[in-house]
From TrEMBL, chain A:
Gene3D superfamilies: FAD/NAD(P)-binding domain. This is GMC family oxidoreductase. The keyword Methyltransferase does not apply. Keywords: FAD, Flavoprotein, Oxidoreductase. InterPro entries: FAD/NAD-bd_sf, GMC_OxRdtase_N, GMC_OxRtase_C, P2Ox-like. It comes from Deminuibacter soli. It holds the Pfam family GMC_oxred_C. The lineage of its organism: Bacteria, Pseudomonadati, Bacteroidota, Chitinophagia, Chitinophagales. Belongs to the GMC oxidoreductase family. The keyword Flavoprotein applies. SUPFAM superfamilies: FAD-linked reductases, C-terminal domain, FAD/NAD(P)-binding domain.
From TrEMBL, chain B:
Pfam families: Gluconate_2-dh3. This is Gluconate 2-dehydrogenase subunit 3 family protein. It comes from Deminuibacter soli.
Amino acid sequence: MAQQHYDAIVVGSGISGGWAAKELTEKGLKVLLLERGRNIEHIKDYVNANKAPWEFAHRGERTQQMIKDYPVLKRDYPLNETNLDYWVNEKESPYTEIKRFDWFRGYHMGGRSLMWGRQSYRWSDFDFEANAKDGIAVDWPVRYKEIEPWYDYVEKFAGISGNRDGLPQLPDGQFLPPMEMTIVEKDVAARLKAYYKGQRSMIMGRTANLTAPHEGRTNCQYRNKCWLGCPFGAYFSTQSATLPAAMKTGNLTVRPWSIVTRVLYDKDKKRATGVEVLDAETNKTYEFTSKIVFLNASTLNSTWILMNSATDIWPGGLGSSSNELGHNLMDHHLGVGASGYVEGYEDKYTYGRRANGVYIPRYRNLFGDKRDYLRGFGYQGGGSREGWKRAVPELMLGAAFKEALTEPGSWTMGMGGFGEILPDHSNMVSLDKNTKDKWGLNVLAIDCELKSNELAMRKDMKQDAIEMLEAAGVKNVQGWDGDGTPGRGIHEMGTARMGADPKTSVVNKNNQVWDAPNVFVTDGAFMTSAACVNPSLSYMAFTARAADFAVNELKKQNL
Amino acid sequence: MNRREALSAAAVIFGGTIIGANSFLSGCKTPAAKTGLFADEDVAYMDEISDTIIPDTPGSPGAKAAKVGAFMKTIVTDCYSPEDQQVFVKGLQTLNEAADKAYKKKFAELTAEQKTTVLTAEGKAAQDYDAKRAKDAPSHYFSMLRQLTVWGYFSSEVGATKALRYLPIPGKFDGSFPYKKGDKAWALS
């Protein structure tokens, strides 16, 4: 590399890292964006995005070889033939499960911004105040009013479609027009509203898919192939949105194949001086220096970097002086819900494939409701008409069987819960010094499980789903309580939590590491609690806010 | 199946339609033998079976035209667990034995009507088997054949474009689109 010094180094190119790079470069800083994996170029490298089903050797299905090669990914839907290259090579990058934790990772340019579910919801003060009111963990040092303008800011750029529903627990935002409910969803929503007298709502999902051209990007074409990478740039990803904005400034340098092994720390100045990089292709080590460092390596990997940094001063790593680094790991627990059949509507169908569903915001332990557990859950779901994958038990084979499957089947309606996981000190990660990855680096050991609060909540998550569907007239409703293993939500949060006191938290209200104020952690690691809504929009907002703060502090020469 | 589909749990309603999708989640199996499960004549044989399950009709070609026999060979060889492979391969023998018992011929040599008779009897045996089937027991070979045929046919170019409506880039979404009996279903979900 010609240049070794930058104003800022951003570690990781996923949703939050892309935002950090965009904000810092647009404010005039020379930024080095480090990505541990390969480059994926927008559109050009979405090699499967335009393939027809028959162009995949196994029509998308997983093979026995894939099952052997991906012992973690095989545990759920992500292991498949169509976007296999977007998931981490598990042989090269293992981790240790003290208890089972399904960690689904993407080590490449854009990270999981390429494969994310795109559901985008704001937190409310019910969430920011929850720890304080319940007397658990530590209080968030921020409230909604402080974050609200940053939600506005990131939504305007990212392009979030949604309806303004006026719900206090799920604040409205700067929305593009909402997607449309199916006729069955509309009727179910109306029946639920009447039945629960407005105490529960079924709304259109708010998603980072464009419903109108936006910021030079094309609107959604309703293909429902988002996770292959969108050739229209119609959903928010690093490649479609933040990376081109950062590149346009002329201030960005991107370096793929760059595994950051530690933050360099000057103990006299109590500041980071840069990062050490292991080149994943050549195994050579480099040092890059900078005035500030943003850690956006993904929740657990940002914590891994901190654990490997400044160990001559703190054996547990940079940020470990609170004894909270690595602790309070959270996710959303899911795998619980219900579904059934909807009679009628035979003269209606859908046109287009909407990569979005309906959403039932949290209602438990709100507005006077009181349960035997804390917090709550939301549901994602949908009502659609069955296609050829349905069972036709009444016909076995032959022309009639074929003809039946060439027409659509019944309408179905289903929903699956997303439950909040409480921060718990004993849910944690640590370094496993006996296990190395391909590059000889210690791997993480994960020790995390659902506790009694989550297990109690899951009973409601199932029973409420059944009750609501039946109340809405859905027939043959079946509930399920499947696999709630942590990690499967793919919403890892915590392990470097934000707080008001350096004795009990890793970062302060501006995402600065207490022990190194020019190091900012703005991916999911900083989350003090988890709420029950999808977290990525909040990472965006906090990242933009922290970048603004960092640049102001640099100007004041405080960093 | 993407995340949204996984969450709205269509899979629970439709569960097991695509065979293997469930067993895939149950554990790590040794990789399949890459060669040797099927001979060339087996592909032709599987074409005949699939074409009995999904035949030519006035509106669209059948499973043979969609090369479902070759599809079965690929999927069973690469995606099936060794246990399911055994059931499947043995089932092909069982079906020929049933044809021989009824008509003193191999299945492929039967008339269309005879094929339907023999395969329907095996289908009924599969229904009986399913009624008493233990949770972890493998599927009946007929269920495998039927499911592979449906999957292989409707995800093929022939099935998707001739028997269904194939629309790669809809460009818009309508959640209340008019439908009348006889209109084809969409090929993609």
